[in-house]
Structures are given as structure tokens and as C-alpha cells.
């Protein structure tokens, strides 16, 4: 083989490139001058489509995975409806927000961010909370998360963030975890992440259930009313069961015991006919007040404290129908923050501006071309007419010879609609500024709201955050990165950073925390509503139990809306000392204590339970260490006394006069942090 031929063959093979020490260029070889800011019309203006570097970078990122979603790959969904209970006509012309009682079909997909499609669901991660409203004016997609802020301020940084948080490319480790070098290197060198990292290290990142998880639109949008008047808004979705979380050790156990824990919880809740409900609302700011706050309202790394800008609730979302086929519905659904209806419009939030490009581009690859809107789960319920034709997977047959606008052969139809006819007209925002790659000075405070979040936590919540930081940063192999993280978070809290430094073997920080003393009670989960409804109790039982006692307690639990599983040595029927029978639907080896919100220790005859006594004791010990309530029946005292659990907060005994009532109250409280055990 001659040298020329060999050179041509080698050009067809993959080649190795080492980027270390090189200058950044586009894929065309043009040197890049700014990789931190997209091109805008003024520092707070809209992103310009002529930014070829941003478009190339984002397009390449959107097309990195097929067919699994690049992020939010692990998801589950359900159908339901939104019912308006307060008219928002004063603020928006959106038709589905006009008349109280109006019902709109919805489809909600919940997801993790970092993990692949087969990863566990209880990992520490952000959760997606995406809602598709099938309105009579077209589909409106509220594509949010369970955390109100995000890691970055400008969409041009999104590929970088996801590359950093995904498994490291040289060994594809770790899966669905942020505890590794590249993520924390990104955090330390991109300090706009500070606020979001506080949320990620908090209990918010390990929710108890999709049904007990708050949703946020994250970005600043606009409401525009019939008169053309606008208000800045942020969307909020508040679960009626309150916001509740797992603890870390519990989440890790569940990841092994039931990696499908969250989807199973949602599926079974709906299958059993229980309601899944959320309230939808918005925070609103007048346009004249845009600059009155000590944060920029267009900065996606900032929230609007609810004590300053209250949430106005106006409707209820109910999930009441499971999907019939996960692939056809959950996997093929395509959300896009650019899917809005008249009366809802965009702002110049630079992260939102980039998402308006990115999502459509992603769907074109993942779902095989431009006709993904014809997939049933994505079709609007209202008629749609346009001149778009052909393409991969075209399903609809458009009749006639005309497919262009303007035309005379079809009387210039389909024709456009005016504002009065319901046409979407973009809000006429005045835009001024030089074409520039820069970021507004008002975006540069990265630590004040991170400190606000810390100030708002209870001592237990702060301890959980501190433990999370220690666990995560201890996994980082680079001592330099560990030191940078410590030096960064001293600006949030000096005690947090100092404790972290001691735990991960680096120097204590020398910087100072920001001078912020304010707090926001709405940010603490300890202030959330608490109900027993749909919480799960495991009844640990054996032959010879007190049938009348157990029957009475179980009926009281069911009347309170508590879900009950009867857990025994093996599946089948058990008979009490008084002849009452129960059916065991879970065995001690087929389930686990971490999968229950509480245990009711019934036991039975001592000689009968000896052979599985160690399993019962383990169940009690685990539940006790996870601060869960435990009810003890009269026949359960002998086995309880052999465990590590001690009488005290959240331990309810059958000897008490109002046992069932007291036990339900304990279940409602969910956790008893004042137990004298190590806080995890």
C-alpha cells in the first residue's frame, strides 16, 4: 500500500485529539473569543440568532445522544386535568385562564436529570416537572424543575454543565451522581452555581414522592392581558400533600431495594383510585418594578422570595390516569418552553432564550424529524392548519394543490389571525443596546441568595446539607478542586466551609461569608403541610396476633387515607388468636423497611416468630434510625424490646388509651428529629 493511499484510509478512521493547552475554536476552526455569554442586543437584551458559536455549540450538544434524552432520560408520567378556580382575566388573555371551572387536559412527566434511562430514581439530583396543557388555543408547555433556580445564567453554558455532571467520559463513572471531580470542578470555576448547589445538597434533591414535590417554571415569563398590558411572572406548582423528602441513607437503600420507587409510588397511587393534586399559581411583578429588587428578576440563578412576592394560586392540577404504554406516551412526549399560547410570553432571561432554540432542535433528532407533533401524545386538541409538508414520519394527509402563503388559488388560506381574532402577537418590548457578548452587572451576585437559603433552613436541614457536601466532595480525587470548593462556599457560610475543609483534608478557608441575615420561611420543608393521606405503613405480623386489636387499628389507618401493607414471613393467610384472619401481601424478604413511612409492630406468638425474629428486629432498627414513627401492638412489645429502638418521640404503644389516633398523628408528622441518635 503506497503512502498516499494509506493516508486516505487513515483519514476515514477515528482520530485522537488532546485539547489540553489549546485555544478554543468552532468546528470550522474559527477561534472563539467568549464562551461564557451568548450574543445579545444589550447586556440584558434578547439573544441573537446570528451567534454562530452558540448555535453550533448548542446544536452539537442537542444531538449528542440518540434516542435517549440527553438529560431527563429517566422519567415517568401520568394524565390528568387542570381546573381553573380563580379567573386570571385581569392579567392574561390565555383562554384556559379566563372562566372558573374551565378544565384543560394535562400530561405531566417527572424525571431525574443526570442519570441514564435505567438509573435508580432516588439518587441526589434535580427533578424535572414538565406539564403539557392541551388548551383550546394550542399546547402550552410548562417545562420546569422541582427547584426554583438553576446552575447557570446563560444557555451557552448548558452543554458545559451537563458534560460536567454526566459520567466522566474516560470511564463512564459515576452513574446518576454529582459526586465526582468534573462536576465539582465546574462548580468551583463557575461560581454562579452556588445557589443551585445549596438546593442540590439539601433534602429537596431526594424527594419522597413525585406527589410530594414542588414544581417551578424557573424562568421569568410574562402574562399579557387583552389590553396588551404585561406583568413579569414565575410559575409555581404546589403539592397539596406538602413537600417531603427522603433522608440520604434511606434513599441509598431504596435505590437498591426498589430502583423504580418513585414511578411505582405514582402508578400505584393512581391505580388505587387515590387523588394526586397540585395547586398552580404565579408570582407577579409589575413592569415598572423590574429594577426595585436586590436581584435581577431575569437571572435564573435567583428566586423571588415568596414573602416579598407572594404566590397567587388560581387552579388545581389533578393526575388521575396512568399511561397505557410508556414508550408511546412518556418517551415520545416532546416538551418545549417555546410552546406558549396567546397571553403567555417570554422575557430576555438568557437561559430561557437559549432553551427556546435548544428544545426544538433536540426533538428533531430524538423523534426523527419535524413531524413529531403528529405523534398522538404531542398533538394539540384544537385543529391546526399550516403549509408545512412532508418530512420523516409524516402521518397527516393535507389535501389540495396549495402549500404556500400568500396565494390566490386557495383564497390565501390558511390565513393569519389578528390579535382580536386570537392570533399570537409577541409582546412589543422595547429593545436597545449594542450587539455584544457580555453579562449584566446585575447578574454578578452569586452568594447572597445561597446565603438566604442557608439562613432559612432548620438545624436538621443544615446538618443534612453539611453531610451532603462532605459526602460529595469527599468523592473528589483532586485536592485542588476540593480546596477550590471550600474556598468558594465560605462565602455562603464560614462554619459550613470550615467543617467541610476539615472533613475532606484541605486547608480551612480564609474568606468571609456574605453579609446577609434575611431568611425565607417558604424555603424550609419544616413549614410544609403534613397529612397522613397515602403514606405507607408496613404491618409486621405473625401467627397468633390479637385480631380484634389489629383489625380496629388497620381500619382506622385506612379511614385516615393511609396505605397499608401486611408484611409477614411469607405470603398467604395468617390467623389471629381470636380466629380473625389477614392476608399477607408482602413478605419480609420481598420488601424492606425503607420502603415504608412507618411500621406497625404486631408480631404474634413468641415461638412462632423466633425463626424470623432477626428480620423483624432489623426492620425496627432501620425505621427507628430513619426517624420514622413506629406503632407497637400489645403482642409486639416482646420483639420491640429486643431492638435498638427506645421509647420516646414517635414511638406509640397500644397501652395508650387513644392508640390509633395518636399513631395516625405520629404518621402525619413523618419524622422525629429529636431522637437521640446520629442525624443522617
UniProtKB/TrEMBL annotation:
CDD domains: GATase1_catalase (cd03132). The keyword Ribonucleoprotein does not apply. GO terms for molecular function: catalase activity. It is an enzyme of class 1 (oxidoreductase). Keywords: Heme, Hydrogen peroxide, Iron, Metal-binding, Oxidoreductase, Peroxidase. InterPro entries: Catalase (IPR018028), Catalase_AS (IPR024708), Catalase_clade2 (IPR024712), Catalase_clade2_helical (IPR043156), Catalase_core (IPR011614), Catalase_haem_BS (IPR002226), Catalase_immune_responsive (IPR010582), Catalase_large_C (IPR041399). The keyword Phosphoprotein does not apply. Its cofactor is heme. Its EC number is 1.11.1.6. It catalyses: 2 H2O2 = O2 + 2 H2O. Residues 25-413 form the Catalase core domain. It comes from the Bacteria. Belongs to the catalase family. HPII subfamily. Decomposes hydrogen peroxide into water and oxygen; serves to protect cells from the toxic effects of hydrogen peroxide. PANTHER family: CATALASE, CATALASE-B. This is Catalase. It comes from Sporosarcina saromensis.
